[in-house]
Amino acid sequence: MSDDKLENKDLKKVGLKVTLPRIKILNILENSQHRHISAEEVYKKLLESGEDIGLATVYRVLTQFEAAGLVMRHHFDTEHAVFELDEGAHHDHLVCIKCAKVEEFVDKIIEERQEAIATGLGFKITEHCLYLYGVCAACQRAVP
């Protein structure tokens, strides 16, 4: 996807019918303060805005968006999946194990090293994801 916001025509391009639940969920993903959002958070935002769209529908639409390449699903913890719009640019993630804050980063040296390791072992990388877990600065400063 481009860095521009998705439009209804983009749903059609990926073979999805333009429906009210899809439009509403897409708008939430595009306008959320957080790039990584759970299905439950999407559902909560729908309820807050007065929409009558069920949690099962939210899960179904997000799964359809994932299959169509509009979003990526991440499992940063064992409890829930979170979704982010797939804007086409590869990046990795730092995840705080205390507050679940997620920071995205790109590092050329890490990417080159992964490629070298794969090549050295006879692999051709087709895709990958890197999650680094730790404690963010705010949580490090917090009193235990």
Question: In brief, what are we looking at here?
Answer:
This protein has 144 residues and is of the alpha+beta class. The chain is built from 6 helices and 6 strands, in the order ααβααββββαβα.
Q: What features would you describe in this structure?
A:
With 144 residues, the protein is α+β, with helices and mostly antiparallel strands. The protein has 2 domains: 8-85, Arc Repressor Mutant, subunit A, CATH 1.10.10.10; 92-141, Dna Ligase, domain 1, CATH 3.30.1490. Helix content is 41%, strand content 16%. It has 6 helices and 6 strands. It has a 3-stranded antiparallel beta sheet. A 3-stranded mixed beta sheet has the order 5-4-6, with no helix packed on it. The relative contact order is 0.14.
Sheet-strand content, in percent, reads 15-25%
Tally of individual domains = 2
Order of H and E elements: HHEHHEEEEHEH
Q: For the terminal residues, how far apart are their CA atoms?
A: 42 Å
Task: Tell me the total number of β-strands.
Answer: 6
Name the helicity range: 40-55%
Assembly context of the chains: single chain
Radius of gyration: 17 Å
Mean pLDDT value? 88
User: Given the C-alpha coordinates, what overall shape results?
Assistant: flat
* Major sheet attributes: 3 strands, antiparallel
Low-confidence stretches: none
The CATH topology of the largest domain, please? Answer: Arc Repressor Mutant, subunit A
- Overall CATH class of the largest domain: Mainly Alpha
CATH superfamily of the largest domain: Winged helix-like DNA-binding domain superfamily/Winged helix DNA-binding domain
